[in-house]
Design a protein that fits this description.
Oligomer: single chain
Mean pLDDT: 85
Shape: rod-shaped
Largest sheet: none
Order of helices and strands: HH
Length: 91
Amino acid sequence: MVTGLELAALAVALVLLFGAARILRAVRPLVVNAVVGLLVFLAASWLGIGVEVNWLTLAVVAIGGLPGAVLVVLLSVFGLAFTPDLVAPLV
């Protein structure tokens, strides 16, 4: 026999499951953009262009996608931002 407590636990579990699925659906494009951006950074490093990878560059790439990655690489090429020698170490 199923009790009310078991039904309540099942209902809470279902709500949490659907909530987690909804969050993952919203975050998936950001993760895909970040992975594509890291691949662009890898290609840039093969070409001899140094790009500092930190939380800010990943945020720009996650939100901007491929154009964001190209922007970060161009800023690094021109020495305006995101160059490895301009970033202070996190101590």
